Amino acid sequence: MDTLGPRIKELRLEAKLNKAALARRVGVSDVTISYWESGAIRQIGHERLVALAQALNCPLSRLLEETGTRAGPLFLRSRMPLPWQDGRQKGIELPIEMVPGQHWDGDCFLVTPAPGEQFDFLKEGDLVAIAPSDIFRQSGLYLIDDDGTLAIRHVDQTPTGELIFHRENSDEAMPWAPACRLLGKLVAHWRMQSL
């Protein structure tokens, strides 16, 4: 992340913000901003990166471009291919404390809804970590292929072992259809907040 510090400074100056103003928007001290820009602090958590991009009014991808970091958000669309399928995208590793209650290991991909796309359980600007998997491991939100359309559903298992899913704001359990398949588990979710 050697180029992240100079990029933060460049974007801050483009946004016509001093360090104190940027610090207030991100929720850190102006000394922290100085440390980020100088490279004295090289590790910035995902939540701070999202807040920083929002405060600088730029996409997270612009903040992270060419930094060598593994955390690049991918656009989720309602049609195939999956955002990570071409193999050039890099995954992220989430610290276990960031995914309480989840039983997951391995890489995840940082994903956000593509402009104009609508998904249950996600709002525009949300960021989610999705662990690719075609196996049900525990109740929760999953990315599924529902007869050719990508969707986010809450997936549960009945006492008899059958999978059922729910749409957002619906108590109606829908049976798992032969045309459905699991594609990934949402293991972390960040929602954009107004500052």
From TrEMBL:
Residues 8-63 form the HTH cro/C1-type domain. One of its GO terms (molecular function) is DNA binding. It holds the Pfam family HTH_3. It comes from the Bacteria. InterPro entries: Cro/C1-type_HTH (IPR001387), Lambda_DNA-bd_dom_sf (IPR010982). This is Transcriptional regulator with XRE-family HTH domain. It comes from Halomonas fontilapidosi. The lineage of its organism: Bacteria, Pseudomonadati, Pseudomonadota, Gammaproteobacteria, Oceanospirillales.
